[in-house]
Amino acid sequence: MKFKFSLFTAMLAITTALFSSTSFAEEETITLGRAILMNQDDFSANIPLLICRRAKEIQIKAGKAAYIQKTEFKFQNGESRTFQHYNNLKEDETSSWRAFTYTRCVTSITVYGKASDTATAVVTVYGRR
What band does 118 get if pLDDT is binned at 50, 70 and 90? Predict the structure, then answer.
């Protein structure tokens, strides 16, 4: 009886270790912020983050048709990174994932672009750890 119990305990421990290790391997997608773009030339929308959000990759999603020129990210250590997009995103379309060199702590995002068809367009910035 004791042998069966220890065998069951060992199998349970191995199964738990296998499933817990795969959950850490999955990439978590988080919303870094949302901005409203106007139908104006040279318009930028600033997304201040209340706390530092860790991300290794970013993606842009347009709620309505929008032209995204570039996005600028500021980090906790004072550095910044700018991605040039030049994308015409249709409604509910996403850009490709753009990667930082390593996981960064984002404190502020500025989106440069304009709404294409309507007066305003909501743009969502996603991050992946």
Answer: confident
